[in-house]
Amino acid sequence: MTEPILDITGLNKSFGPVHVLHDVDFAVRAGEVTALVGDNGAGKSTLVKCVAGIYGTDSGRVRFRGEEVHIRGPKDAADLGIEVVYQDLALADNLDIVQNMFLGRERGSAWLLDEANMEQAARETLASLSVRTVKSVRTPVSALSGGQRQTVAIAKSVLWDSKVVLLDEPTAALGVAQTRQVLDLVRRLAEQGLGVVLISHNMADVFEVADRIAVLYLGRMAAEVHTKDVTHGQVVELITAGRSGDIGLARPENAVL
């Protein structure tokens, strides 16, 4: 078993009196896709935002590449190599692909942008991910399809020598062909050695691309299992009840007080 590139233990997060995450353990391994699943309100988005530095944590330990780290904000996460592609993609429709990929991180001097360098880097990044659906990196984002937009957002996340990429519902609202393109891209990220976290409600997508499945149930990590070791039905049971047979959270009568 490979050592996790990102290893979270005992993470707790509350918002006022509401305890959202309870002693959550979560690991991400380089070269693998870990699917993070759970019902609405299970805590998936909160966990991702804690990893990304958007939310502070109440307690818990985070280790990155074997070293304990403290993520106090999004810049700390980005400096480590943790990137998040949110469901709304955060792309500017009025800018082209190159401008979006380098937005806020432009190359050049204070007086002159290095357009040629940025354009070349954008092309190379898309090519390294075997992206063939984008004809020109100077195409405005407003002219792209949903699948192409998702591709640009993912390519943007790996442009900065990232080590871990978290994808929030990357195939939501996409057609069959576009979903196929995005799932292929997710696998290519793992094949390039990145640790990939896929947040999804689509079990077909999860079972197709994920090496492991981590299930959150009411803010607790119910199970983290190899995809090949569980069935679709077992994962659904873990999502809805926190337990499936011998897998999952302890039953109340067996719980340690």
UniProtKB/TrEMBL annotation:
SMART domains: AAA. GO terms for molecular function: ATP binding; ATP hydrolysis activity. Keywords: ATP-binding, Nucleotide-binding. PROSITE patterns: ABC_TRANSPORTER_2. It comes from the Bacteria. It comes from Prauserella muralis. This is Sugar ABC transporter ATP-binding protein. The keyword Nucleotide-binding applies. Pfam families: ABC_tran (PF00005).
